[in-house]
Amino acid sequence: MISLFFLIIYMGSFMLMLLVLGIQVKCFHEIITIGYRVYRSYDLPWFRTLSWYFLLCVNYFFYGETVADYFATFVQREEQLQFLIRYHRFISFALYLAGFCMFVLSLVKKHYRLQFYMFAWTHVTLLITVTQSHLVIQNLFEGMIWFLVPISSVICNDITAYLFGFFFGRTPLIKLSPKKTWEGFIGGFFSTVVFGFIAAYMLSKYQYFVCPVEYRSDVNSFVTECEPSELFQLQSYSLPPFLKAVLRRETVSLYPFQIHSIALSTFASLIGPFGGFFASGFKRAFKIKDFANTIPGHGGIMDRFDCQYLMATFVHVYITSFIRGPNPSKVLQQLLVLQPEQQLNIYKTLKTHLIEKGILQPTLKV
Amino acid sequence: MTELRQRAAREPDAASEDKELESEVKIDGETASDSESRAETAPLSTSVDDTPEVLNRALSNLSSRWKNWWVRGILTLAMIAFFFIIIYLGPMVLMIIVMCVQIKCFHEIITIGYNVYHSYDLPWFRTLSWYFLLCVNYFFYGETVTDYFFTLVQREEPLRILSKYHRFISFTLYLIGFCMFVLSLVKKHYRLQFYMFGWTHVTLLIVVTQSHLVIHNLFEGMIWFIVPISCVICNDIMAYMFGFFFGRTPLIKLSPKKTWEGFIGGFFATVVFGLLLSYVMSGYRCFVCPVEYNNDTNSFTVDCEPSDLFRLQEYSIPEVIQSVIGLTTVWMYPFQIHSIALSTFASLIGPFGGFFASGFKRAFKIKDFANTIPGHGGIMDRFDCQYLMATFVNVYIASFIRGPNPSKLIQQFLTLRPDQQLHIFNTLRSHLADKGVLTAAVEDE
């Protein structure tokens, strides 16, 4: 699996996007199948069709929102795409409504309760799998490093916690998962932080990983080429005194991103396991051993991805809160949609602001 | 007297909502006379005679068949009067009312969940449900409030920090709740706890998102709040009346009381009502203007130049209607055209929300969501058709009416880096020059 991971990374961001989509569909399928078995409702009229239809609708909505941002130039060229983008929300809502009405019309007297349960089950599953996978893709577009480092931290935490627990495990951690131990937990935490630190250092050097993914209209493909932002430029940090004595150095050159990676690894080690406990509780609640039998010896796709639930959301929230501001191309897009008078007003406001700040020279006339 | 009261106690239950009879499909629309014959079959949940004492005495001499009609009628008028009072009091009060309705709906649905799963004693669960409600509300209010109260927020230092890291703080709060849930899992009750967790989240998804879209619509202008809600209420009432007087062909097995005559009659009546109501309301600024927060006066103001939508324009009538009315043109507000779309949605799709709620009640074998309003059931019963309306209005506004908010764009622009700002500025300049909006004379101002 790890080699597959490396292979996919090599093939680039578009493949990664497809992979994420594939995983999402498989996770959805696994959870829905569990629902069918729990409720013995495999024969409900229409239900399988409706579940997949809702998955399609929600994906359409999310992909439309993200894709429109990133493919702005491509989209502006095609007339039909422009129409789809402009009324995107309305179209998605109409599609969802059609599914909702089909659900109401498909209610059969004997199976009301089951049908409502499956409806709710589908929606909660969509909420979990589809939103997470879209946040993953948004992180990916920020730069592949925002995708790779969190996921590898979670995987590393899994593996090292298991190893520490295997060799040193003594005190059980939580009744829910008897195999987890405090030694594994703490050992995993420290090793994940170190691993994240090193992985961040290695990956920050390459433009390929660090640059936001952009779609170039001339080349008609994805490119990751840019001037690396400050986060990915080596800076000198003065060490606190006690480390100075240990390492016998005054300063150390680090990428600022490595500091962020400590935050990401900490989250992966401390909160990530809660996602695993949640999944264990879920499996015990519904008396299943594994989500599915897709991977021999490891269970289903969900089993591998249960700890990633919260990680993707955290990384996304982290990026929006601490790293980047609003997306410039999106601001530009919205500007171009306004009425000409509004555009003119904004133009004047911006001009005054830029001149004040000294960014724009008053005498500059093109 | 007591017997009359006892019959009355069963009457509201028998006559108000759908009865759970396994066999027949009603050929005639259910009228009060039919329901009398079924008053003998006991309702599945114990009924409580919660009609207020005063109404009981006032109506005691009427035959029990019409008493229920009167109870419902009086309560309907009371609710409508209440509605008008709230509108009079202004947007801030409306916002608070929407929030209270949301909390009550949430409480009702969660209580049903407890009853269904006999899970009232699950450890921590009540606390966690309310905690999640608080978190999600905090997140949504934070997102909307910061937009509309931008200047106020920038002034106060603690508010500024809260709004800058808003998403992060909300996420942390949610995470704490999630971890508490995981830690509270008890061996014997795993499945129940997961069910309640799922139930809470679906309820939050429905109730909280809808109420926030309602508040968004409200901020666009009170007319976007009042007209849709009144259309749904009108459709409810009109469909009931048409069904009562002319009802014959049943509409859907799920709700035997609904008829095609009621449906179609309600549709036309609602469209007409929507046209009239929007005509009346478009004349007044306080309904039409977006709600803004004025920092000087520290209060909400609704004062503006009405947009094109709310200015009378002349429309030429198609020939077919010209001969009927005898006028060649008519003066209308463009908003009235939009109101036709809103009324159509309220009449055609709104009832699906009602069917969904009926199916839900049958699935879980409950008569009403709660007993808050005598004769009408709980708050959810009144609001079930509004589920989709608020979302539709919001999507409609976002798609067809307004573009992006200019002041918000400026805000976002100011947080960008200087080189990005310059890039956008130059692109905008060339765009405006291309369009011919920007001339050298304008440039020199």
TrEMBL record, chain A:
It holds the Pfam family CTP_transf_1. Keywords: Lipid biosynthesis, Lipid metabolism, Membrane, Nucleotidyltransferase, Phospholipid biosynthesis, Phospholipid metabolism, Transferase, Transmembrane, Transmembrane helix. Belongs to the CDS family. Its EC number is 2.7.7.41. It catalyses: 1-octadecanoyl-2-(5Z,8Z,11Z,14Z-eicosatetraenoyl)-sn-glycero-3-phosphate + CTP + H(+) = 1-octadecanoyl-2-(5Z,8Z,11Z,14Z-eicosatetraenoyl)-sn-glycero-3-cytidine-5'-diphosphate + diphosphate; 1-octadecanoyl-2-(9Z-octadecenoyl)-sn-glycero-3-phosphate + CTP + H(+) = 1-octadecanoyl-2-(9Z-octadecenoyl)-sn-glycero-3-cytidine-5'-diphosphate + diphosphate; 1-octadecanoyl-2-(9Z,12Z-octadecadienoyl)-sn-glycero-3-phosphate + CTP + H(+) = 1-octadecanoyl-2-(9Z,12Z-octadecadienoyl)-sn-glycero-3-cytidine-5'-diphosphate + diphosphate; a 1,2-diacyl-sn-glycero-3-phosphate + CTP + H(+) = a CDP-1,2-diacyl-sn-glycerol + diphosphate. The gene is CDS1. This is Phosphatidate cytidylyltransferase. It is a multi-pass membrane protein. Pathway: Lipid metabolism; Phospholipid metabolism; CDP-diacylglycerol biosynthesis; CDP-diacylglycerol from sn-glycerol 3-phosphate: step 3/3. GO terms for molecular function: phosphatidate cytidylyltransferase activity. One of its GO terms (cellular component) is endoplasmic reticulum membrane. It is an enzyme of class 2 (transferase). One of its GO terms (biological process) is phospholipid biosynthetic process. It is found in: Membrane. The chain crosses the membrane at residues 6-25, 46-63, 83-105, 117-137, 143-169, 181-203, 257-279.
Automatic annotation (TrEMBL), chain B:
GO terms for biological process: CDP-diacylglycerol biosynthetic process; lipid droplet formation. The chain crosses the membrane at residues 69-89, 95-117, 124-141, 168-186, 193-215, 221-247, 259-281, 337-357. GO terms for molecular function: phosphatidate cytidylyltransferase activity. The keyword Transport does not apply. It is an enzyme of class 2 (transferase). Keywords: Lipid biosynthesis, Lipid metabolism, Membrane, Nucleotidyltransferase, Phospholipid biosynthesis, Phospholipid metabolism, Transferase, Transmembrane, Transmembrane helix. Signal peptide: none annotated. It is a multi-pass membrane protein. Residues 1-48 are annotated as: Disordered. Its EC number is 2.7.7.41. InterPro entries: PC_trans, PC_Trfase_euk. The keyword Lipid metabolism applies. It catalyses: 1,2-di-(5Z,8Z,11Z,14Z)-eicosatetraenoyl-sn-glycero-3-phosphate + CTP + H(+) = 1,2-di-(5Z,8Z,11Z,14Z-eicosatetraenoyl)-sn-glycero-3-cytidine-5'-diphosphate + diphosphate; 1-octadecanoyl-2-(4Z,7Z,10Z,13Z,16Z,19Z-docosahexaenoyl)-sn-glycero-3-phosphate + CTP + H(+) = 1-octadecanoyl-2-(4Z,7Z,10Z,13Z,16Z,19Z-docosahexaenoyl)-sn-glycero-3-cytidine-5'-diphosphate + diphosphate; 1-hexadecanoyl-2-(5Z,8Z,11Z,14Z-eicosatetraenoyl)-sn-glycero-3-phosphate + CTP + H(+) = 1-hexadecanoyl-2-(5Z,8Z,11Z,14Z-eicosatetraenoyl)-sn-glycero-3-cytidine-5'-diphosphate + diphosphate; 1,2-di-(9Z,12Z-octadecadienoyl)-sn-glycero-3-phosphate + CTP + H(+) = 1,2-di-(9Z,12Z-octadecadienoyl)-sn-glycero-3-cytidine-5'-diphosphate + diphosphate. It is found in: Membrane. GO terms for cellular component: endoplasmic reticulum membrane. Residues 1-39 have a biased composition (Basic and acidic residues). Pathway: Phospholipid metabolism; CDP-diacylglycerol biosynthesis; CDP-diacylglycerol from sn-glycerol 3-phosphate: step 3/3; Lipid metabolism. Belongs to the CDS family. Catalyzes the conversion of phosphatidic acid (PA) to CDP-diacylglycerol (CDP-DAG), an essential intermediate in the synthesis of phosphatidylglycerol, cardiolipin and phosphatidylinositol. PANTHER family: PHOSPHATIDATE CYTIDYLYLTRANSFERASE, PHOSPHATIDATE CYTIDYLYLTRANSFERASE 2. This is Phosphatidate cytidylyltransferase. The gene is CDS2.
